[in-house]
């Protein structure tokens, strides 16, 4: 048996470690038998916990982390060392290294485990800080390599005497010299007279901590190049210790700019002689150029548009479409085409067809939008006329059957609340004899007058259309009862009574009316038209000059 007094002295001394003496039962249960004062102080375990099983004292997470290690030590009778976390009484999470030492009896059975827990938090943090410092140095080296060695611009670092200390690959490619031929030599050995002239003056300014930038058209490696040169002081502890010289080949860029300038001159010649509106718009939607044709087409001077938004004088209903289309063109690098309205100086709204193409610079950044605009007002008027033909009766200029059905469909899809409606079908009683007696031209005039008289008795929101021949149909909206329908019908009948004077002839006309008054929305436009037609024939069967009302429940 263990000498408990001796064990207690070992546990309490415990050096600088947290010491726990655990009694083992059956290799799977572990009871607190002794805990040193340091462990009590750090973990919050008290004398009340002595005799309790491991799971009763620890949190669930901590228990399931520790338990397998204790079982391993008890079953193998060998020392087990592992790392873990524990929460101290100061509410800090500490990193620990735990050593489990099994104590065995004369039969070789593990009766106790002595657990020694060492706080290695500071050690692990120091290791982490060391690793982070190492990583920071590596990142700094990579950044330096990206900024200097791998930079696409040519870079050379020189000391205060102008001696070359380091060059990157781009510098070797630009100058045609190898690194070994350059290091340790003055930069003047590879500079021509013009480079020295500008370089000396700039170098003196950089030594005074003033960065310099200038351009030269000069010779390098046998080629005439446009070079952008930047000189930057290398400052250490407030002292200039050297200079970075960065050379960027901008030959292609300058060539493109000169070409663009020539193209712009050609463009201006074309724009000034064009009958379309030509406009250049920048990234902020501001007009940078407006062609002289603005004066002849819109009546405004082109100067009245330059500096204004691309929405200047545009119809407010078209503004958002224009902005969305321009944004899409810039993001997708695609041309766009659309119609819009713009105001003439006389106040009229003209229709235009716009074609716009985004222009990007050599870096792929949006530069400007070229917009060509053509007046299509005549075409729009013709299209409107065709649309009117498609939806209107050419004889009476009233809506036709197609327009009426479209109105019905739109109305049936609306949320009307408690509002009711009715459909009325009309035709002229005994119209055929009128045609036969007076001729078709006279009959056409009768039909036109019949349509006008019906329309004159309708209210806002109502619609009358010619179905064909002498047959008309009407939609009455905003109703609350059958009486509302009957009032409209009686007004129409009153208007039709008496003599009609057409082409110096007198005629007397009456009408039969079929009425459908639905009490629900579960009905189609075609069903309503059929029901109104059936009601019309029912009215004629009653003796004409009357109406028949059909209620649909």
UniProtKB/TrEMBL annotation:
Domain PAS residues, every copy: 140-210, 263-333
CDD domains to which the protein is assigned, alphabetical: GGDEF, PAS
Database matches in PROSITE patterns: GGDEF, PAC, PAS
Domain PAC, first and last residues per copy: 80-132, 210-262, 336-388
Domain GGDEF as annotated: residue spans: 419-552
PANTHER family xrefs: BIOFILM ARCHITECTURE MAINTENANCE PROTEIN MBAA, DIGUANYLATE CYCLASE DGCP
Entry protein name: Diguanylate cyclase (GGDEF)-like protein/PAS domain S-box-containing protein
Native source organism of the sequence: Alkalibacillus salilacus
């Amino acid at each position: 048996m263990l000498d408990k007094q001796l064990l207690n002295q070992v546990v309490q001394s415990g050096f600088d470690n947290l010491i726990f003496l655990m009694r083992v039962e059956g290799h799977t249960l572990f009871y607190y038998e002794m805990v040193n004062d340091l462990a009590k102080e750090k973990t919050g375990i008290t004398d009340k916990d002595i005799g309790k099983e491991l799971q009763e004292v620890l949190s669930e997470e901590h228990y399931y982390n520790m338990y397998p290690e204790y079982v391993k030590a008890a079953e193998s009778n060998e020392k087990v060392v592992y790392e873990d976390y524990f929460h101290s009484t100061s509410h800090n999470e500490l990193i620990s290294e735990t050593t489990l030492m099994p104590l065995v009896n004369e039969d070789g059975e593990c009766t106790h485990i002595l657990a020694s827990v060492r706080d290695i938090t500071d050690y692990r943090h120091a290791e982490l800080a060391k690793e982070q410092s190492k990583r920071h140095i590596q990142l700094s080296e990579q950044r330096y390599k990206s900024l200097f060695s791998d930079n696409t611009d040519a870079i050379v670092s020189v000391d205060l005497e102008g001696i070359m200390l380091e060059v990157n690959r781009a510098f070797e490619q630009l100058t045609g010299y190898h690194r070994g031929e350059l290091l340790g030599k003055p930069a003047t050995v590879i500079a021509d007279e013009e480079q020295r002239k500008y370089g000396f003056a700039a170098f003196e300014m950089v030594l005074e901590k003033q960065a310099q930038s200038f351009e030269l058209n000069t010779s390098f490696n046998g080629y005439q190049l446009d070079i952008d040169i930047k000189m930057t002081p290398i400052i250490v502890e407030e002292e200039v210790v050297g200079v970075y010289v960065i050379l960027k080949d901008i030959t292609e860029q300058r060539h493109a700019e000169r070409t663009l300038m020539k193209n712009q001159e050609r463009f201006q010649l074309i724009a000034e002689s064009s009958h379309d509106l030509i406009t250049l718009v920048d990234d902020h939607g501001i007009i940078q150029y407006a062609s002289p044709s603005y004066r002849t087409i819109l009546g405004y001077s082109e100067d009245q548009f330059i500096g204004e938004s691309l929405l200047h004088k545009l119809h407010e209903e078209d503004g958002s479409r224009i902005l969305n289309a321009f944004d899409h063109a810039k993001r997708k690098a695609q041309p766009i085409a659309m119609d819009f309205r713009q105001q003439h100086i006389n106040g009229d709204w003209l229709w235009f067809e716009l074609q716009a193409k985004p222009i990007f610079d050599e870096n792929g950044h949006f530069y400007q939008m070229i917009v060509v605009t053509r007046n299509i007002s005549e075409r729009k008027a013709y299209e409107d006329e065709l649309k009117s033909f498609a939806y209107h009766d050419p004889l009476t200029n009233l809506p036709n059957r197609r327009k009426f059905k479209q109105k019905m469909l739109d109305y049936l899809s609306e949320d009307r609340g408690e509002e009711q409606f009715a459909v009325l079908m009309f035709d002229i009683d005994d119209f055929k004899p009128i045609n036969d007696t007076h001729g078709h031209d006279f009959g056409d005039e009768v039909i036109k007058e019949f349509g006008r008289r019906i329309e004159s008795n309708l209210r806002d929101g109502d619609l009358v259309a010619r179905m064909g021949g002498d047959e008309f149909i009407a939609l009455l909206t905003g109703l609350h009862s059958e009486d509302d329908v009957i009032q409209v019908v009686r007004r129409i009948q009153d208007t039709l009574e008496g003599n009609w004077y057409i082409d110096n002839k007198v005629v007397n006309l009456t009408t039969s009316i079929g009425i459908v008054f639905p009490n629900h929305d579960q009905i189609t436009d075609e069903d309503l038209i059929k029901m109104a037609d059936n009601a019309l024939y029912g009215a004629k069967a009653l003796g004409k000059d009357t109406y028949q009302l059909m209620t649909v429940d």
